[in-house]
C-alpha cells in the first residue's frame, strides 16, 4: 500500500509573472536596474552601522539587522525570476521548491518579529526613557535577536512540515513565479481543507495579530509623544511614522495573501511581486532616508573612501 505522504512529482513548472513576452522583458530590465541600485545601498547601510562608533544604539543595531534580513530575502525569489524571464521552460525541482518556501517564510517570519522588537524598542525609548538603558542593554538586544530568528525558524518549519506530508502525484503547474504555500497546496492529490486552515492560522492569523498589535503600539507611542512637551518630539514622530510605513508595506500584502482561503485572485501575482521583490529592497532605504544620523554617517563613510 502506498504511503499517504508519498510524492511522485519531482519538479514544478512555474507559469511565471506574465505570459506576455514584452511585459516580461520590461519587468526584467526594471527589476535588474532596481536590484543593482538598491541592493548595494542595503549593504552600505549594514557597513555604515557596523563601522561607525556613533551608531551603537539599539535602534541602529536592529536597523542593520533589518537591512541584512531584507537583502537576504531579496535573494530568495528575484534572481531566479530574472533567470526564468530568459528561459522558455521555467522549472524548479520539488526539493528546490520546498527550500525556497522554507527560506521565504524563515526570513519573512523573522522580519515580522523584528518589526515587533523595533516597536518595543521605540516604546521603551519614548514612553519609558529612564528605563531604556537598563531594559535595552546589549545582552537584551542579542537575546531578542535570537528569539526572532528562532521564531522565524519555527514558523517556517511548521509550513514545510505540513507540506511534506501532502502527496503530489499529478498536476505540477504552479501559477506563479515562485513557490509559495497557497499555490503548492492546491496541487496536492488529497483534500487540503484542514491543512489550509492550519496554514491560514500559522501565517494569516499571526500576521494579522502582529499587524494590529504593531499599529496599536505605535498609536500609543504617538499619543504619548503628542501629549508630552519633551525635546526631540519631531524626531520621535518621524521615526515612528517611518516604522508605520514599513509595517504597512510588509504586512499589507502578507495579510492579502495569507489571511483568506487559498483561492487564486487576479491580483495575487502583482501583490506577491511587490511583497517578495520590491518592498524588501525598499524597507531599509526608507528608514535611512528619514534618519539624519545614518545619512550623515553614510556620507562620511563614502567621502572617506573617495579620498582614499
From TrEMBL:
Putative odorant or sperm cell receptor. GO terms for molecular function: G protein-coupled receptor activity; olfactory receptor activity. The keyword Disulfide bond does not apply. Belongs to the G-protein coupled receptor 1 family. It is a multi-pass membrane protein. The gene is LOC112642654. It holds the Pfam family 7tm_4. Keywords: Cell membrane, G-protein coupled receptor, Membrane, Olfaction, Receptor, Sensory transduction, Transducer, Transmembrane, Transmembrane helix. Signal peptide: none annotated. It comes from Canis lupus dingo (dingo). This is Olfactory receptor. The chain crosses the membrane at residues 23-47, 59-78, 98-120, 141-164, 205-225, 237-258, 270-289. GO terms for cellular component: plasma membrane.
Amino acid at each position: 500500500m502506498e504511503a499517504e505522504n508519498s510524492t511522485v512529482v519531482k519538479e514544478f513548472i512555474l507559469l511565471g509573472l506574465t505570459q506576455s513576452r514584452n511585459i516580461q522583458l520590461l519587468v526584467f530590465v526594471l527589476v535588474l536596474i532596481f536590484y543593482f541600485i538598491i541592493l548595494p545601498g542595503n549593504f552600505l547601510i549594514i557597513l555604515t552601522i557596523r563601522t561607525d562608533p556613533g551608531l551603537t544604539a539599539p535602534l541602529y543595531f536592529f536597523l542593520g539587522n533589518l537591512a541584512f534580513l531584507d537583502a537576504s530575502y531579496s535573494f530568495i525569489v528575484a534572481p531566479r525570476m530574472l533567470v526564468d524571464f530568459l528561459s522558455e521552460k521555467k522549472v524548479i525541482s520539488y526539493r528546490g521548491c520546498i527550500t525556497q518556501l522554507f527560506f521565504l517564510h524563515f526570513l519573512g517570519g523573522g522580519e515580522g518579529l523584528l518589526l515587533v522588537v523595533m516597536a518595543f524598542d521605540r516604546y521603551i525609548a519614548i514612553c519609558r526613557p529612564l528605563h531604556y538603558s537598563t531594559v535595552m542593554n546589549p545582552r537584551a538586544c542579542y537575546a531578542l535577536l535570537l528569539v526572532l530568528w528562532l521564531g522565524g525558524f519555527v514558523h517556517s518549519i511548521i509550513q514545510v512540515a505540513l507540506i511534506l506530508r501532502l502527496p503530489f502525484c499529478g498536476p505540477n503547474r504552479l501559477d506563479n513565479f515562485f513557490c509559495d504555500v497557497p499555490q503548492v497546496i492546491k496541487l496536492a492529490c488529497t483534500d487540503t481543507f484542514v491543512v489550509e486552515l492550519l496554514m491560514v492560522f500559522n501565517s494569516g492569523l499571526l500576521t494579522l495579530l502582529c499587524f494590529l498589535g504593531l499599529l496599536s503600539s505605535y498609536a500609543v507611542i504617538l499619543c504619548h509623544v503628542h501629549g508630552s512637551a519633551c525635546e526631540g518630539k519631531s524626531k520621535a514622530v518621524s521615526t515612528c511614522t517611518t516604522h508605520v510605513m514599513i509595517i504597512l508595506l510588509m504586512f499589507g500584502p502578507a495579510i492579502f495573501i495569507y489571511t483568506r482561503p487559498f483561492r487564486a485572485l487576479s491580483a495575487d501575482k502583482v501583490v506577491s511581486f511587490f511583497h517578495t521583490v520590491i518592498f524588501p529592497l525598499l524597507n531599509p532605504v526608507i528608514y535611512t532616508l528619514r534618519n539624519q544620523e545614518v545619512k550623515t554617517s553614510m556620507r562620511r563613510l563614502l567621502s572617506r573612501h573617495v579620498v582614499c
